[in-house]
Amino acid sequence: MRANARLGFFLLITPLVLWLGLLIVIPHIDMFLVSLRERVGVGEYRTGLANYRVFAEQPLYIMTFARTAIMSVLATAITLVIAFPVSFYIAKIAKGRLQSALFLMTLIPFYVSELVRTFGWMILLRETGLFSGLLQWLGIVDHPVEMLYNDVAMMIGLVYTSMLFMVVPLTTTMESLDDATIEAGYDLGGNGFSVLREIVIPHAMPGIVSGSIVVFMLSLGNYLTPTMLGGKDSLWFTELIYSQFIVRFNWELGAAFGFLLLALSSLIVWGMLRLTGQTLEKTLG
Amino acid sequence: MIPTIRQPRALRIAYRAYVALFFIYLALPLTVVAVFAFNDSLFPALPWKGFTLDWFFGDTRPMIGLFHERPILRALGNSFYVAVFVSTMSVAVGTTNAFLFNRYDFRFKGLLYVMMLLPLVIPGIVLGISILVFASTLANAAWDAFSVEIEALRPGLVLVILGQFSFITTVVTLVIGARLQKFDRGLEEAALNLGADRLTAIRTVTIPYLMPALIGGFVVAFLMSFENFNTTLMLVGSDAPLTIAMFDRLKEGSTPLLNAVSLLLMLISTSVALAMVLFQRRR
Q1: Which of A19, A106, A266 is opposite residue B169, by nearest beta carbon?
Q2: For A223, which residue in chain B has the nearest alpha carbon?
Q3: Domains of chain B
Q4: Which uninterrupted H or E stretch holds B4?
Q5: Residue A152 is part of a domain; what is its CATH number?
Q6: Per-residue pLDDT tens over the stretch B225-267
Q7: What are the CA-CA distances from residue B123 to residues A219, A242, B54, B230, B241 (Å)?
Q8: Fewer Cβ neighbours under 10 Å: the N or C end of chain A?
Q9: Do A160 and B29 touch (CB under 8 A)?
Q10: B187 contacts chain A (CB < 8 A)
Q11: What is the H or E stretch that residue A37 is in?
Q12: Residue A4: inside a domain, yes or no?
């Protein structure tokens, strides 16, 4: 029996180790090594930090990096603010059929490809689009307005794309909040605001954290939305990675960019977990 | 706040209006995509020129419908091919992972569990380039050492499958693990007492119990694979899956053909998702 259990253990751990080793750990180590490669001649390389120096000395790269980070934080905050009341409504106010119908309705748009969602916003916002037409029809403007290709359009797209990943964890954590606790808050003289601050938000914290982490990650790593909805000035860091890899074929610099993006996202996720005293196992698992 | 607490009427109405507005916001982009698939015009834009099904069934230029557009159909086939492989592989590995973490205690279990979660917090595009870099390192090494060209390690569908598999497996592991955790081990022991050996007990008791999660995991993996963009973008070769093919079209300018394809995608994924919900409710 013991030998059997051991055999079972090895059979079960092998796929896990192969998967994580060959597709996650070793590729990332390899990417890091490539990012440390400096080209000195044709086919000649030496190890050094030249690629990271290029990043540090080029204001465009640093600006794009910082912009991507700040805009992603902003997108996360906006998503949270928009999603919170909706999740509360679904979890605590809607009952029975309505509750499950609303919950399903938040899910359905996201079974559709991100490309389709972005395309939808393009149809709505562009110069010949629906909003522009509506404004003209209402007589508010007398010529077509271009609402696409700017930061606001991009932000609308980013928030839209990640909404589900905020609503679902928020709704599930708030569902477990007992109505009696809220009532007790009121009985003890609290008002809507203090009950929200001292009962609802602390209870929803695990949901807030896991939703924020996922939304932040998705925004930071998004390529489609900034490319299709953003303007020339709203360059996203993933676009730099793509252009180094696919257009310029400078894999060394591209790998360095990739590693920087990974470091930034890990740092912020780690910081967010530390700040709120949560762990990755609890928030994702 | 909650129904048992009395609130001013105006506040309640405002709250309800906000929620309604939210759902309009969710539905709006998808609705316009769907509606303009039927516009008898060369552009998915106003003015409305009348209803047509040409963007689905048309076979004359310039209105070649989706069912006569070879590259799109081929891309749809590619997506399907990739998704079948990805979901089969990730359900298999997800199941072994779930059993491993549920049934065994071993050193570094906590560390391995965190590592198992990591693919979810790595940006998709980084996942893509790291696999691209490593695969080409391997391919170059094989070429230098034995002068063999391993086609599978160059950008193409094999790498796309591996790239998507690398993070979808985490999701599937969580789906299956959650159900396995609720399983009553006593049932398995009862089977053992009745004379079944371990594998028979798992096959006849545990796996049937897990079935909803296995099917759910498969469907989720399938849909995630079908709509994946970032990781796929970095690993794609000459055979593009549907999202990449549509992206290339969209960059050149949009026609209602893209709306028709999008509508088809929506119908497929919504019906798959609804079928899954109904199936799980029946259980």
Answers
A1: A19
A2: B230
A3: 72-252 (1.10.3720.10)
A4: none
A5: 1.10.3720.10
A6: 988 898 999 999 888 899 999 898 888 877 788 888 888 888 8
A7: 9, 13, 39, 9, 20
A8: N
A9: yes
A10: no
A11: strand A37-41
A12: no
